[in-house]
Design goal:
mainly alpha; globular; 2 strands; about 150 residues
């Protein structure tokens, strides 16, 4: 996806600042191509785009993930530990929509990192990247089921 690269440039920052509403809607459409959300649903979330810190935080996040910006130094030790990709030994359910348009690895690529009780759920029916909104029942059921995993 071109988005991270674009937002790492000054031109991308300016464009995002000018068109953040349209940009966010495009991302929703790309990440969840089969989700027919209405304008009211989008607008409830889009209100957060008006936060005066939104653009700076978003741009910094993309640049930090590309190693083009410094992170918070007090978390460097934790970042180093996370970079080692330690195993996860607590009960875990991972979920994926069958129409997820966002870049993501296949479940097989990370399944062995879970050494505790683990389950992966593929949620069918044209579900994209935004599982809590697109498949709220399946999402809530996973939270409930985690207690019994």
């Amino acid at each position: 996806m071109v988005v991270p690269i674009l937002l790492c440039t000054e031109r991308g920052r300016l464009g995002y600042d000018k068109s953040r509403h349209d940009f966010a809607k495009l991302i929703w459409q790309l990440a969840s191509p089969k989700w027919n959300f209405d304008d009211a649903t989008f607008e409830r979330s889009a209100a957060s785009l008006n936060n005066p810190d939104h653009v700076a935080l978003t741009i910094h996040n993309y640049r930090w993930r590309q190693d083009l910006a410094e992170g918070e130094a007090k978390y460097d030790a934790l970042e180093k530990r996370l970079a080692e990709a330690p195993v996860i030994n607590v009960p875990t359910i991972t979920m994926e929509g069958d129409a997820n348009g966002a870049p993501h690895p296949p479940a097989e690529a990370y399944a062995k990192k879970f050494t505790g009780k683990y389950e992966h759920r593929l949620i069918a029916g044209g579900i994209g990247h935004n599982l809590p909104q697109e498949a709220p029942q399946a999402f809530a059921q996973a939270v409930i089921d985690l207690d019994h995993l």
